[in-house]
Amino acid sequence: MYSPKYFSSVAIQRFGCRLLSSASGGVPSCSRKVRPISKMCGWQIHSYGNLDEVEYSENMKMPALTSPNQLLVKVTAASVNPIDVAMIKGYGSSILNAMRCKSSIEFPLTLGRDFCGEIVQKGLSVSSRDLELGDEVWGVVPLHHQGCHADYVVVERYCLSKKPASLNRIDASAILYAGLTAWSGLYITGHLGGVLGAISHVGGGRGKKVLVLGASGGVGTLTIQMLAAEGVEVFATCASDAIDLVQNIGANYVFDYNEPGHVQDLANAGRFDIVLDCANKGTEYGTSIPWKFDQYITFNSPVLKNIDENGFATGMCQNALNIVRNNVASVSAQKGLIKWGYFAPAPQGIAFLQRLVEKGKLLPIVEKMIQ
Question: At a CB cut-off of 8 Å and minimum separation 6, what does 34 contact?
């Protein structure tokens, strides 16, 4: 419900209990201390606020399996995404906390959405034909669950799979959250591959025409690679210093969004099947641009923000009015539908991304690595 934008993931790699963070410049290792087996190290917040709320702990409670479909994973690498910063500030706290409190209290809250690690325990319903103890996996944590910025994380079976052999741990920990956001926007919200593209890993969209706004960010760079791999004609916008990067990863036509003429140039390019907003432009931008499109999909949804600020009932009414108003304006201007895109932890999405990785068609752009 919130997506990485503007920049790629920061990858964090763990060795034993040692965890270093750009926020603090580093923490002492707790591997030299004797701790109960029920305790672990990690990063938590105890209230919402700014980055100063993030605290390193050597006395975190080890997560336990509560379902036969869950697995306990020893985390070897994890990424930091903008959603982590937003959640520190309280983004989505109303809905996410209501969902989270079915299984745990609100605080302390562990952040972190995607990871690479090793299976150390699994539920009785997890087949040995699929996953064994000791298997190296990559996975993603839904927003309402305790995250992976710790030594261990518990996840549902559908949220992980075996790590692609071609990926190192750092790259494997920096794909799934941003990648599943892009996949969901294109194939679930945008129906780029039809029904089959939404319910399976086959993808699709060959011959379609897609414009990606903010193509050099975490979601944008993965979107470009996904579309290029599926034979889509790709238009993209980014800053001038990222044009070469965006071209090299697969965009057919790249425009500098700081150039005033790029709006008209894109209007002259004809109708787009999808305009995918990875640049936080929002729904109103879709009604103001002169471009023709069948669908304008933005990841800058006001849904959780409105509920946080106004409560569930009033917030949902505002959300409904927002999407109806913008669609009426768009259709009246002979454009297409305005939609919101979301992160979706879907197993078919993970399988789609895994297929592209194994074909050498998909890699993350990691901004920084901290060990």
Answer: none
